[in-house]
Design a protein that fits this description.
This protein has 212 residues and is an alpha+beta fold. It has two domains: 94 residues, Glutaredoxin; 107 residues, Glutathione S-transferase Yfyf (Class Pi), Chain A, domain 2, CATH 1.20.1050.10. It is built from eight helices and four strands, in the order E-H-E-H-E-E-H-H-H-H-H-H. A four-stranded mixed beta sheet has the order 2-1-3-4. Helix 4 runs parallel beside helix 6 and helix 6 crosses helix 7. The protein is globular, with a radius of gyration of 17 Å. Glutathione (GSH) binds next to loops.
């Protein structure tokens, strides 16, 4: 059974969401990032980067939320979290938007977070706030264009690309970035209303409560 190392209010929600969509059995281990557990020697043995999520699959500590989403989609094909190889166009769209979410949306949000609080104070540049906001807005506009043309990023059907995009939009909202496009706000609400999201959040919260 896979084991997910995660922490509420982090990118591990992406992994838990995908596992819940797939109906997977998995263990969840809470890593208290806010108390430095990511830097503890035992966790660094598992993930030398000290970050979450990490998914242990067949003894392999798989890091990177994008790779974890693809692993889940490929190991639970019945959940149809990626278009099948026979649908080459939809599959290419899924890959395209997965990459876009990681390199454009996530990158802009991470820039904002790094310069607000995540970097050591001496490395933070206040002016990066404007840069990151500009980068996010530009990426969000492109995402909106795609979603004006199709209900999901890969086409008609929900895929792991939508998990990444919706997670990034929810992150933007909690970082107090404006999401001006009604297409994007509708898309966000629709995806956050999926039962797998509530289950994933409950799983993360329960693991944290158990560890207290
Ligand atoms: N590129 C990685 C980023 C993972 C990441 O930065 N996770 C944050 C939480 S959202 C973390 O664990 N930060 C702890 C740290 O930087 O020490 C992914 O997508 O999985």
């Amino acid at each position: 059974m896979p084991t997910l190392y995660g922490c509420p209010n982090s990118r591990s929600l992406r992994a838990a969401w995908a596992l819940e969509e797939a109906g997977a059995d998995y263990d969840y281990v809470f890593v208290d990032l806010f108390k430095g557990a990511g830097r503890a020697a035992d966790y660094l043995q598992i993930n030398p980067g000290g970050k979450v999520p990490t998914l242990i699959v067949d003894g392999l500590p798989l890091t990177e939320s994008g790779a974890i989403l693809v692993w889940v989609a490929e190991h639970f094909p019945d959940a149809a979290l990626l278009p099948p190889p026979s649908d080459a166009v939809a599959r290419a769209e899924a890959w395209r938007w997965l990459c876009f979410c990681l390199t454009e949306l996530d990158a802009a949000l991470w820039n904002l977070a790094k310069h607000r609080f995540a970097l050591p104070e001496r490395l933070r540049v206040a002016a990066m706030e404007d840069t990151a906001r500009w980068e996010f807005e530009r990426a969000a506009n492109l995402l909106a264009l795609r979603l004006e043309a199709s209900p999901c990023l890969a086409g008609e059907a929900f895929s792991v690309a939508d998990i990444l995009a919706a997670h990034c939009l929810a992150w933007a909202r909690s970082a107090k970035l404006e999401i001006a496009s009604p297409t994007l706000t509708d898309y966000l609400e629709r995806n956050l209303a999926r039962p797998a999201v509530a289950r994933a959040m409950a799983r993360e919260a329960a693991a944290k409560a158990d560890a207290a």
